Structures are given as C-alpha cells and as structure tokens.
Amino acid sequence: MSQQYTAYIVDHVNYVQQAFDWLVNHNLIDYETLPKCHIAEHDLSKYTEDEYNAYDKYFYGNGRKSEEVKNNFNYAWLHHIHNNPHHWQHWVLINDEDGTIALEIPKEYTYEMLSDWWAFSFKNGDLKEIFKWYDFHKANMMLHKNTKKLIEELLEKIKKILETEENNTIELSR
After folding, report:
1. Which tens digit of pLDDT belongs to each residue from 110-149?
2. Angle at which helices 107-124 and 3-25 pack, to 10 degrees?
3. Domain spans, the chain
C-alpha cells in the first residue's frame, strides 16, 4: 500500500464530508432524504483489491503509464462506478433495444455526487471552483433531466449563499 495514495483517499473523504456538511448546515439537503445518505461510506471501495493497486499505480506510479497500468485502471474505475452510486455513470443504462439512457439518480446519491465534485474546491480553498468545473464537464455527463435540474438548482443556491457570505465578510471587515 502506498502511503501517498492512502493519504489522498483519507483527505478526499474528509473534504467530501466537509462539502456534505456545508450543504446540510445551509439547509440545501432535503431532510427527508438525509437518513438515506451514505456519506460515511464514501469511496470505501477504493481500499479493495479490485481498485487500490490499480489506482495507486495509475496516479502515484513511476510517472510512466504503460498500457497494462491504463487497462488495470480502467477495470478499477469500472468497478468503482458500478459499486458507488454517487457517480452519474452508475445510472447510465446501456440497453439492448433502446440504446443508452440516463436514469434519474436518487437524491441521496445526487447530494453525495455533488459533495464529491465539490470536495476538490474545499481542498483547493476556493469554494467557487465547482462552478467552473461543472461548466467544463457537464457536456460530457449523461444525466437524467430531473437530476440535472436538481444539480443546477443546488449549484445556483450555493452560488447565492457564497456571494452573500462573501458580502457579509466584506461588510464585517470594514
């Protein structure tokens, strides 16, 4: 086990929890959904044999990614999204008859998915970074219209709260 990769997982999970707690503390999570949330188990599959070594070699290996390393990572990523419903890819159905469709993601996983994305903003100390990240990535996401609507409503609410808190901070510091 790589200390560097293990430290990354621990830090990432802590930032996901911070983002989730921020959403809860700002009343952006539907409280009826809250008991169903699995945030305490976020990314536990990254410690499994099916994922850990492949992720570690891919991200913390010798810098050179051989075809074998890339292939092993792809299988690990597939395992990860199939075992972690907080990823939008988990909810994409490749159907024999109807082609590929996006299923609506239950709210508890949508909240965790947003917290997962936002964790990197918490890590970087720029809570507004999520908006640029989402704008850049949304074209490649296959989201059900209701899930996309919920995500974008939450992002808009986050933006307004951050602007208000920023304005309050500025006013208080004068």
Report:
1. 999 999 999 999 999 999 999 999 999 999 999 999 999 9
2. 110
3. 3-43+84-173
